[in-house]
Amino acid sequence: MQHIAIQLKDEAGTIALGAALARVLTPGLTLYLHGDLGAGKTALTRALLHAAGYAGHVKSPTYTLVEPYTIALHDHMVEVMHFDLYRMLSADDFLDAGFREYFNSDNICIVEWPEKADGVLPPADLDVFLTLAGDGRKVELVAHSDQGFQCLDQLHFAPNM
Ligand SMILES: Nc1ncnc2c1ncn2[C@@H]1O[C@H](COP(=O)(O)OP(=O)(O)OP(=O)(O)O)[C@@H](O)[C@H]1O
Ligand SMILES: [Mg+2]
Known about the structure:
This protein is α/β, with parallel strands linked by helices. The chain has helices at 11-22, 41-51, 91-96, 146-154; strands spanning 3-8, 30-34, 66-73, 76-84, 108-112, 126-133, 136-143. Helix 1 (11-22) crosses helix 2 (41-51).
């Protein structure tokens, strides 16, 4: 499957989508999260990490630009790197910080504000677009690779509309 559109009527919907995504994660997956300030990118990532078994606090990587988490995926430990590039000043900063090395076949990378590293950011397997829709959110998931297609094929999500 290449494209899925979902309506999330409240934050519980975002949490349910995060949990659904957590069940289809595979090592090496890169997700871009698009959407305005407050669209729900961090809320979705937090829900995904908690559903994946991370019990600690998930804060927005607003100032650190990236926060690492370790989760167990099919009995293997996998690093999830959660980026928020909003405050990154230039694409060169991305390279200088060594961020490209995090994008390998083992780590899962989730990137808020990928536009800020245009040209240097490794490509996404899955694009997630979050937009405000009334009091809730509209979400579009678009796959760009076999790994991304497989995720969407396996995604089971019953919207709480
Ligand atoms: N489906 C939903 N419907 C309504 N509100 C939601 C929904 N999902 C999340 N929210 C709310 O929207 C806000 C999302 O904030 P969040 O920090 O996740 O945004 P963000 O996209 O990461 O913004 P930023 O670009 O500033 O990092 C939270 O207040 C959360 O409660
Ligand atoms: Mg955020």
